[in-house]
Amino acid sequence: MNVAAAPIDLAVIGGTGLYQLADLQDVESHQPVTRYGAPSGPVRIGTLDGHRVAFLARHGEGHSLPPHQINYRANLAALQALGAQRVLALNTVGGITERFGPRVLGCPDQLIDYTWGRISTLCEEPGTEVLHVDFGEPYTRSLREAVVAAAARAGVALVDGGCYGATQGPRLETRAEIARMKRDGCDLVGMTGMPEAGLAREFGLDYACLAIVANWAAGAGQDPDEVITLQDVLDNVAAASSGLPPLLRAVLAG
Ligand code: HPA
């Protein structure tokens, strides 16, 4: 693709229940095609308090793509080609440990990847350089710290740290799977955290996750028989999202 890339202050990838950034002004839409194919949908670039912000709905604006069919490489390649260096990933998740009940916002600092069969590297094609990027600290420390500090300044409650477990989906997990993830050290469970974070590292992008807890993961809440419904997920994401505009504004204000 060949797009003149004026820098973007922040790119935001929206997850389940988050298909647009309502406060963006003067929005232009881009439909880039990258060497990895087309991203999930249009990249909307606009301004927020005078800062250039890009937004991409990870599942498509009509939520048509399940987690394992998202072209994570194309999404990140498109944002990078349009001028983004910092990517804030919004991920709707289930909460496993006590600090992460429904409607909590979290900024995890670790992850475990349980996904399989997804294209998870830029080294997939024959002849590409083999990369072994360091991934001991999977999220970019400076961006995480900026998000945590911004939340404090904006008065938005945010849990700093925690381990995100990325599952294959699209089905939710069994109680035994969640119990195992808890024993493994996971605090949160979602379906889209990987390969996105690993690819961002390969692309050389700064990347952090803002997790929005939509439900107790299977068997993790008070009622072990609770059934997780999509409506509960969407209601809780909508309620927790009220903290996002002030948080994003504070991240941009730096
Ligand atoms: N598990 C996996 N992904 C999720 C969940 C969950 O409980 N809730 C929202 N995304």
UniProtKB/TrEMBL annotation:
Keyword Glycosyltransferase found: yes
* Tree of life domain: Bacteria
Keywords, A to Z? Glycosyltransferase, Purine salvage, Transferase
One GO MF term, please? glycosyltransferase activity
Which Enzyme Commission number(s) are listed?
A: 2.4.2.1
Q: The Nucleoside phosphorylase domain covers which part of the protein?
A: 10-244
Q: Which InterPro entries match?
A: MTAP (IPR010044), Nucleoside_phosphorylase_d (IPR000845), Nucleoside_phosphorylase_sf (IPR035994), Purine_phosphorylase-2_CS (IPR018099)
Q: Which reaction does it catalyse?
A: a purine D-ribonucleoside + phosphate = a purine nucleobase + alpha-D-ribose 1-phosphate
List ligand-binding residues for substrate.
Answer: 191, 215-217
Q: Does the keyword Zinc apply?
A: no
Describe, as the record does, how this protein assembles with itself and its partners: Homohexamer. Dimer of a homotrimer.
Entry function? Purine nucleoside phosphorylase which is highly specific for 6-oxopurine nucleosides. Cleaves guanosine or inosine to respective bases and sugar-1-phosphate molecules. Involved in purine salvage.
Tell me more from the record: Although this enzyme belongs to the family of MTA phosphorylases based on sequence homology, it has been shown that conserved amino acid substitutions in the substrate binding pocket convert the substrate specificity of this enzyme from 6-aminopurines to 6-oxopurines.
State the similarity comment: Belongs to the PNP/MTAP phosphorylase family. MTAP subfamily.
What protein name is recorded for this chain?
Answer: Probable 6-oxopurine nucleoside phosphorylase
Q: Which organism is it from?
A: Lysobacter koreensis
